[in-house]
Design goal:
By secondary structure, the chain is an alpha/beta fold. It contains twelve helices and ten strands. It has one domain: 3-Layer(aba) Sandwich (Rossmann fold), CATH 3.40.50.720.
């Protein structure tokens, strides 16, 4: 019988679905309420985890409603067994409302404070809230502040890759992420900046520079690709828009989504993690040409798709003089994140899923013709 109750938001996302997987398989004493964007997504996840049906239930909150104050009232209500822990992966990205970086940071902070306030008011038994993010939202805004969220996955990253200072993007994105975490802590501690009459739980932030890795849910279209996985699609497709050397939005530090999910689950139970912000990273992703070479060695069929000139560009980022500003020490010492998925595992598992999607699309075109 489950003895601990967890609310997980964004369970239908790349990050959230892996967190759900880790919760159900690593913690047999835990039951989970998964917040998803539609009934169809709830059905797909239920099919994905049939063996955990007695420990998994769902609440549907459409994505456009998640920023509304009190949006999670119903999801947080569980009178039979109150929630002990909340893991929040559905982080709003206020691109359209922000006209400068400070405004973007402020809007994301307000959204998160509204969520934490919602937890405080509706679920008094909660003892820990874990916020799971990446630097990507800040990097996207810095690279192209006019880009609407709906088109982020389709933007031509090569266009701006030659115009941006990647060190600046990395440092500024990390600092922005840290500012949001510090603002949340001030609110919880009742500082004059944010009014809070008391504090019933602690807060942990788990973040990564950029995120790669296979999706747990089947891919139906390339638009289903999330985070940095779009770059692997472009390389596998020889997409002319992606000159394979450019990392997503200028950030080549990365984490496999499975490692980020594991760190997030561990953060729920480590007492000393309260109030801390953990950065999870496996290091630097190789350059695009190196990725292409690795994938061609594992998937010979890619040799017909990737142009030779796409594999002759700049050196691996590990060899350049870019600043090493990502510190894994806290995640290693407190969360035990001393080992990570190898870059080959990350790329091969992701590419395998992408190639299966491309084969299905090709067969569909053949059948239709």
């Amino acid at each position: 019988m489950a003895t601990e109750r967890v609310l997980l938001t964004g369970a239908d996302s790349l990050i959230g679905s892996h967190v759900l997987n880790q919760l159900l398989f690593l913690l047999p004493s835990v039951s989970v309420r998964a917040v998803v964007g539609s009934r169809e997504q709830a059905r797909m996840l239920a099919q994905r985890f049939p063996q955990a049906s007695n420990r998994l239930d769902f609440t549907v909150i459409p994505q456009q409603h998640t920023s509304v104050p009190g949006a999670y009232d119903e999801a947080l209500s569980d009178y039979s067994q109150p929630f002990d822990t909340v893991i929040h992966t559905a982080i709003p990205e206020p691109f359209e409302q922000a006209d400068c970086l400070s405004r973007f940071i402020h809007l994301q902070t307000v959204d998160l404070i509204n969520f934490v306030r919602n937890v405080k008011d509706a679920a008094p038994a909660v003892r820990r809230v874990v916020i799971v993010t990446s630097f990507s939202s800040f990097a996207r805004w810095l690279v192209d502040p006019g880009m609407e969220d709906d088109h982020l996955a389709r933007r031509d990253s090569s266009t701006s890759a030659t115009k941006i200072d990647t060190d600046y993007i990395l440092v500024t994105s990390q600092s922005s992420s840290s500012l949001v975490h510090e603002a949340l802590l001030r609110w919880l501690n009742g500082s004059p900046s944010y009014s809070s009459p008391g504090r019933q739980f602690d807060l942990v932030s788990v973040t990564s520079p950029s995120i790669y890795g296979p999706s747990l849910c089947p891919l139906e279209n390339s638009s289903d690709l999330e985070e940095a996985n779009r770059r692997i699609w472009n390389i596998c497709s020889n997409d002319a828009r992606e000159r394979t050397s450019s990392p997503p939005y200028g950030i080549d530090f990365y984490s496999d989504v499975r490692d980020l999910a594991l760190a997030s689950v561990r953060a729920t139970s480590r007492p000393q993690a309260g109030g801390k912000r953990f950065v999870v990273s496996a290091g630097r992703m190789p350059s695009g040409p190196s990725i292409a070479t690795l994938l061609k060695s594992r998937f010979p069929e890619l040799g017909r798709r990737i142009r030779p000139e796409a594999s002759s560009e700049s050196q691996d980022p590990q060899m350049d003089s870019s600043m090493d500003v990502i510190d894994n020490h806290l995640a290693a010492s407190m969360l035990g994140m001393t080992h990570h998925q190898s870059v080959e595992e990350t790329l091969v598992d992701t590419a395998h899923q992408i190639l299966e999607l491309q084969q299905r699309k090709e067969w569909k075109r053949v059948i239709q013709s």
